[in-house]
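Example 380, ligand zinc ion.
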Amino acid sequence: MTDDGAPPVLDGHNDALTRLLRAGGVSAAESFVDGDEGHLDLGKARRGGFAGGFFALWVASPDDETDHRDEMCAPAYDLPLPAMLPREEALPIVAAQIATLRRLESLDALKVCTSVEEVRGCLATGTLAAILHLEGAEAIDPELHTLEALHAEGLRSLGPVWSRPTLFGHGVPFRYPSGPDTGEGLTAHGVRLVKRCNELGIMLDLSHLNAAGLEDVATHSAHPLVATHSNAHALCPHARNLTDEQLRTIAATDGMVGLNFATAFLREDGQMRPDTSLDTLLRHLDHLIGILGEEGVGFGSDFDGATVPERIGDAGGLTTLRRSMRDHGYDDELMTRLCHGNWLRVLERTWHAPSGGEPIGVSERDGIAAPGSVEPAPDA
Ligand code: ZN
C-alpha cells in the first residue's frame, strides 16, 4: 500500500529512457534520482505510488526529431510514418538506453526485473521495478541473434513495431479519425519473431500494430494477448486504439490492455491537449472492463512519451487518478487488479510455463494455431 492506502501501480509503458538519452544517457541518470521536468523520476514515482513498470527502449527516426503534438491538435490529422530504420542505426541507441537503465540500477534507483518474484519483491519493499521493453524491433537482425542477446540482457517484453514499418511488420499511423485496419500485418520474419518470443518467454505487445498485425500475433502466439498502452476505439476513433472486436479477441485469450494516458487516444476529438478530464479516462476504463472483464485492464501511462491530462500531470498525479477511480465506485479488489494485479497475472502466464512443458494458453486457444515448437520459458 502507498501512503494514501491505495494499491501501488505497476505501469505498462513509459518513455523515461528516451527522455534520459536526449539529456545525455548514462551521464543524465542522476537526474532521474534528483528529479527534473519529466513525467517520471524517483521522487514523482514515490509521491504517486508508481511502484514500477515497463521501460521502453525506443529509437527516434533521425530525420523526424520534431514534436508532432501541435499537429495532433487539429480536428483531423494523418502524420506521415517515418521510413524504416536501418539496424545499424537502431542498435547503438538501444544499447545506450540499456546502459542508462543499468546505470539507474547501480545508483539504487530501481531494479531490473526478469521474473514475477522479483517484481513482487519490489512491490513489497518499495524498490522501483523496471521491466525491459523493446518498442519496435528495428535493432533485431533477421536471424534473431540480437533478440537472444537482449533477452540475456533482461528483455522481457517486445512490440514488433512502433508504428513505423520494420523487417517484422507494419504499424498504424498517427491518424484521426481512422480505424486500425491500415495495411499488411506481420512479415514472415515477424511470425518467426513471435514464435521465438514465445519460446524465450518474452511478452508480445500489440500496441502500435495494425489490425492485420494484431490478427497475426493472435494466430501465431500462444501467450495471452496484451496491448500495453492502447485505448477504446469506440470512445476515441484513433488508428492507435482498439476496436471492440479487437478487445474481444484479446479477452478470448485472458489477455489485457493498459490504459494509455495520452490525451490524443483518450479524447473523443483525438486531440493531444492537456485540458482533458479524468472522467474521460474513467469512461475508457469502464468500456475496457466491460469487454475485457475486471482481470483484463491495467495502466499503460505513456509517461514521458505523450501529453497526459493536466489533473495527473506526472507520475506524482497517480494519487489523484486513483482517488477519482475510488470515487467512481471501484472497490478494493478492482483497484488492486487495475493498479498492479492484472499485470502480475499476465506476466505470470507469459514469463512462466506450467509444469508439464506447454506454455499456458495453448490448450485454451483451441481454433487458434499454436506454434509447433514451443518450449518452456527458460526462466520459468
Ligand atoms: Zn508507444
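Summary: The pocket of zinc ion is lined by residues 135, 162, 207-208, 229 (CB under 6 Å).
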